[in-house]
Write a structure and sequence with these properties.
Structural class: mainly beta
Order of helices and strands: EEEEEEEEEE
Largest sheet: 4 strands, antiparallel
Distance between the termini: 51 Å
Radius of gyration: 18 Å
Helix content: under 10%
Strand content: 35-45%
Length: 129
């Protein structure tokens, strides 16, 4: 069975043998044998015996350029999730997810503790010294 995981990271540099990230991945270090692939499309199935779970990253901007981030590594839809299209302009449309979720526990690989959410505070960038 092949497992697909989507992790979010900002690429700092690309070499002939490495993809260097700006920070560690929010879900922890990838397992041995993992690889990176550019996603150009995605297909999954709904219904049947498929147990659908989601992950979410919420970012709240502060008034002074700071940010608070909430990362939920494992979410389950409470009521049927659905997608809805929204027209942004002439010929431009976005698709958004409409759902209510329940956070499910995960075991943190760093210390073995059970968690539902990771929170981070990112202060505004200060002046260069």
């Amino acid at each position: 069975m092949r497992r697909v995981t989507f992790q979010i990271g900002k690429v700092a540099a690309i070499t002939s043998t490495q993809l260097v990230l700006d920070e560690a991945l929010p879900g922890g270090a990838p397992v041995s044998g993992s690889s990176v692939q550019k996603i150009t499309g995605f297909l999954d199935r709904d219904g049947s015996s498929y147990f659908q779970e989601w992950s979410a990253l919420f970012i709240e901007d502060g008034a002074q350029g700071d940010r608070v981030c909430f990362y939920y590594p494992r979410l389950q839809a409470m009521i049927g999730a659905g997608e809805a299209g929204h027209v942004l302009g002439a010929g431009v449309e976005q698709v958004g997810l409409a759902a209510e979720f329940r956070a499910l526990p995960v075991v943190d690989a760093v210390d073995g503790e059970t968690v539902l959410c990771y929170r981070s505070y990112l202060p505004a960038g200060g002046p260069a010294y």
